[in-house]
């Protein structure tokens, strides 16, 4: 029986019962029938912090030999001999003491013998609540909060409804160890469908697992379990708008955009994006795919990518489905010709998500009105399995995430209670240009062959290629390549489900964490080598140069810093340490104080969690050939980066500070500032605030086009080019063998547009690409020397491929090429075609679709008028003949 069928059956039974009461009520006065109260779902929690639980903590099996191992989760089970007490429950080293930040109210027996390890493997808890007749059928969802250490499973009336960090639970016995050694207790939210409930007594049962026999603590708290009224059923969408709407970039943000959101109701089993030009035009509808349900939340996540967009264009969009749309929201695609914009860089949000985080984001948005998006250095939340934390993170980002792109890196807390990053991949949609054996260079050769070692390498690389999807990626935005990598190393997510056997020190299983880092380093080398962008920045979580006390990442430093230095990456933006630091590798220092010429390494913190700085003696920077220009503790910051053609201007702002902050600057002040200046020839300087970059003794000369009036037959100069080409096509120009290896400027006239500054090959040829938006018609390709001296020019005719249809806002017209017949389709989205005009909005000119001179246009208009006149005469003659024929037949 399906969920929908079950719910309808339950409602039918409830309705029948009410009808029975109604029939019985016919025998009583009408006033009594009118007083029958409506059935309401309780608004107060059915379980809270005062609830008494029955619990078993002596290491015995609650099944007591029953063939049904889970009999203890059912309502009829007798737990009268179990201990009873209200929560929370726990132990630290066998005593009633704090477990992380939580102090238990009730002490659990920690050890099997009562005094020392081994620990009790599993603890069992039971409680119950009552529902009045008819109430269960009206409950849509049961929602509960849990705080636990190490793993937990939840049942309601004998049906399992949730499990957290329970990947090791086999289910073959009630007593087993499970968990991932997460440190402090985790917080999670579970949700169950109302169908698990019944009128009368309902039983909640919980199994709490120790991670290992030597575990130092145990903890469980159930702050509340609440009931939510029925909102809708699958197949019957309810008019509730989506939430968590977020834009994430594609690899080509000028012409495409990704969208993600959380359904507004459980009945929303499909989703769509609707998008239209903000200036007006047709609305496109694009289907989304279901990205999954996570953390016990039954609401579906959706993602969609829309391509075929126009660069530098404002669009409006909404997400959801018919009857349950979000509001229309605006964003703008990237402009490949623009260089000036801002972006925001955040460190860990993690703690203070309902207070500090929205305040930090609001300050950043006010300081960066031209921001195209934000980069996040991991630990967006504290516990990935906690839906409340995700709710608060998205609430803080509500406007920013829906209007500009979010480029986030996962941190170690994204794995907290979610080792396979299911929440991450449900919430975000990122480019699938992650590492693979095709993009890791020589490292891929380790996976070639039939040896056990090669087979195991192949298994790891295949698994990591799949897992790295949406956690390791890049996007190119207006001259900046934003690169995100995954610095977390955890055996659970790094291990394939099926791993070929291998023995010996050469097997990759002996160095998984290091190999995962090297895998990404090889990919980094590839994407930086291939980068077309002037600026390259990278974001990840754990720093290559740690700042807070007791932290160090030598493996990341070993593999990643050499790549950053070799490619002279511009900004390395990190988090994790809950402090602030900024500096450089000592090899990048110059002879001038306040000026370096290599990567800038930054650690920042954007939440309410703060750590102490490392001591000078153990400073990871100074002990590893690096210098801290600034470091600080007790500060919460955000960073705004202004991008222009030749500069990145970085400013860090104080958003909050603690009483122990290492700065006397007020909140709102600029905390740190520097400028990266880079010329087109690759020379670069990083200058401290107030320090001017060196004066270029030989500044590059900006190309200046030749005056159009000076282009005559006498100075064509022997330059050759194809007679015609299509917009967007690459063409070859011949300059002559005597101009081999010559740096030149290539222009497209009549309205001069620089196509590039190539160097001719040994035969004296250069190649240039005609802009895709170049107008059709007669043009000239003009070649200068790098000093601006005219070398020559050649004519070229630009024409689109014939028969592509008329211009407009819908489908292209279908008229034949060159016939002047009108197109018969809907108004077109393509460029002007070779047929006649489309019949819809925005239909274009008939004819060959090329750009023309004024004389040609006048001639065309004269011919069109003549044809129209001739057509009118023919039409009149035809009408007269029909009338004459008609008169003759009637006579």
Automatic annotation (TrEMBL):
Here the segments flagged for biased composition (Gly residues) are 803-847
Signal peptide residue numbers:
1-32
State the UniProt keywords alphabetically: Membrane, Signal, Transmembrane, Transmembrane helix
Q: Which residues cross the membrane?
A: 860-879
| Span list, region Disordered | 798-850
The keyword Aminoacyl-tRNA synthetase appears for this protein: no
Superkingdom is: Bacteria
Which InterPro entries does the record cross-reference, listed alphabetically? Calcineurin-like_PHP, FN3_dom, Galactose-bd-like_sf, Metallo-depent_PP-like, PAPs-like, PAPs_N, Purple_acid_Pase-like_N, TAT_signal
Q: Tell me the ranges covered by the Fibronectin type-III domain, including all copies.
A: 241-336
Instruction: Provide the protein name.
Output: Metallophosphoesterase family protein
User: What organism is this sequence from?
Assistant: Agromyces soli
């Amino acid at each position: 029986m399906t969920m929908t069928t079950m719910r309808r059956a339950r409602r039918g039974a409830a309705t029948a019962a009410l009808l029975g009461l109604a029939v019985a009520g016919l025998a009583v006065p009408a006033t009594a029938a009118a007083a029958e109260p409506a059935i309401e779902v309780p608004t107060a929690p059915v379980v809270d912090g005062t609830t008494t639980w029955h619990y078993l903590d002596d290491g015995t099996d609650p099944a007591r030999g029953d063939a049904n191992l889970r009999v203890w989760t059912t309502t009829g089970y007798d737990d009268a001999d179990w201990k009873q007490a209200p929560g929370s429950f726990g132990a630290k080293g066998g005593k009633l003491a704090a477990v992380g930040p939580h102090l238990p109210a009730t002490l659990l027996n920690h050890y099997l013998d009562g005094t020392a390890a081994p620990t009790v493997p599993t603890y069992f808890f039971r409680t119950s609540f009552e529902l009045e007749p008819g109430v269960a059928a009206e409950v849509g969802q049961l929602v509960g909060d849990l705080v636990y250490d190490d793993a937990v499973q939840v049942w309601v009336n004998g049906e399992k409804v949730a499990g957290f960090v329970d990947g090791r639970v086999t289910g073959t016995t009630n007593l087993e160890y499970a968990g991932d050694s997460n440190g402090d207790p985790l917080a999670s939210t579970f949700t169950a469908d109302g169908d698990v409930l019944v009128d009368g007594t309902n039983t909640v049962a919980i199994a709490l697992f120790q991670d290992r026999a030597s575990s130092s603590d145990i903890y469980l708290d159930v702050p509340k379990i609440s009931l939510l009224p029925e909102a809708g059923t699958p197949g019957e969408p309810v008019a509730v708008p989506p939430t968590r709407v977020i834009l994430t970039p594609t690899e080509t943000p000028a012409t495409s955009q990704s969208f993600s959101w959380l359904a507004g109701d459980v009945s929303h089993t499909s989703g769509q994006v609707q998008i239209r030009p903000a200036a007006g035009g047709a609305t496109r509808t694009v289907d989304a795919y279901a990205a999954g349900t996570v953390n016990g939340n039954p609401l579906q996540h959706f993602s969609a990518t829309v391509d075929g967009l126009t660069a530098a264009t404002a669009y409006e969009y909404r997400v959801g489905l018919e009857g349950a749309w979000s509001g229309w929201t605006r964003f703008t695609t990237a402009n490949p010709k623009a260089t000036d914009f801002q972006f925001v860089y955040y460190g860990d949000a993690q703690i203070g998500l309902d207070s500090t985080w929205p305040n930090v984001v609001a300050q950043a948005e006010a300081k960066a009105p031209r921001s195209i998006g934000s980069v996040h250095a991991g630990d967006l939340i504290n516990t990935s399995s906690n839906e409340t934390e995700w709710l608060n993170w998205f609430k803080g980002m509500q406007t920013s995430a829906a209007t500009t792109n979010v480029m986030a890196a996962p941190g170690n807390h994204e794995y907290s209670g979610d080792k396979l990053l299911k929440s991450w991949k449900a919430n975000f949609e990122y480019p699938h240009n992650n590492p693979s054996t095709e993009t890791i260079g020589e490292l891929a050769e380790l996976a070639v062959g039939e040896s056990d070692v090669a087979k195991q390498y192949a298994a790891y690389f295949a698994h990591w290629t799949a897992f790295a999807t949406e956690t390791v990626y890049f996007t190119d935005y207006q001259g900046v390549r934003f690169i995100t990598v995954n610095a977390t190393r955890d055996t659970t997510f790094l291990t394939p489900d099926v791993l070929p056997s291998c023995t010996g020190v050469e097997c990759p299983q002996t160095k998984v964490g290091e190999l995962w880092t090297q895998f990404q380093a090889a990919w980094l080398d590839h994407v930086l080598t291939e980068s077309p962008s002037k600026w390259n920045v990278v974001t990840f979580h754990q720093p290559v140069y740690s700042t807070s006390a007791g932290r160090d990442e030598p493996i990341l430093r070993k593999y990643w810093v050499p790549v950053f230095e070799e490619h002279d990456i511009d900004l390395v933006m990190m988090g994790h340490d809950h402090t602030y630091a900024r500096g450089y590798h000592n090899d990048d220092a110059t002879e001038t104080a306040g000026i370096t010429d290599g990567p800038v390494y930054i650690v920042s913190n954007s939440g309410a969690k703060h750590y102490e700085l490392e001591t000078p003696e153990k400073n990871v920077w100074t002990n590893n050939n690096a210098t801290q220009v600034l470091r600080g503790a007790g500060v919460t910051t955000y960073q705004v980066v202004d991008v222009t053609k030749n500069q990145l201007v970085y400013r860090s702002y104080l958003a909050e500070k603690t009483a122990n902050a290492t700065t006397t600057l007020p909140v709102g002040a600029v905390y740190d500032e520097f400028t990266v200046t880079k010329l087109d020839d690759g020379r670069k300087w990083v200058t401290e605030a107030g320090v001017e970059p060196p004066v270029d003794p030989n500044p590059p000369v900006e190309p200046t086009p030749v005056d159009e009036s000076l282009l005559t037959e006498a100075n064509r100069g022997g330059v050759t080019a194809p007679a015609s080409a299509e917009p967007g096509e690459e063409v070859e120009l011949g300059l002559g063998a005597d101009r081999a290896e010559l740096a030149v400027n290539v222009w497209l006239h009549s309205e001069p547009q620089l196509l590039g500054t190539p160097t001719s090959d040994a035969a004296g040829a250069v190649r240039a690409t005609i802009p895709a938006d170049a107008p059709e018609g007669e043009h000239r390709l003009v070649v200068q020397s790098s000093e601006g001296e005219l070398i020559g020019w050649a004519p070229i005719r630009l024409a689109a491929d014939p028969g592509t249809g008329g211009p407009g806002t819908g489908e292209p017209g279908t008229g034949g090429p060159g016939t002047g017949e009108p197109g018969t389709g809907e108004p077109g989205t393509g460029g002007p075609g070779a047929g006649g005009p489309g019949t819809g909005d925005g239909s274009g000119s008939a004819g060959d679709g090329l750009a023309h001179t004024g004389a040609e246009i006048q001639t065309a208009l004269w011919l069109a008028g003549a044809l129209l006149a001739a057509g009118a005469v023919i039409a009149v003659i035809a009408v007269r003949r029909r009338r004459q024929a008609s008169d003759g037949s009637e006579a």
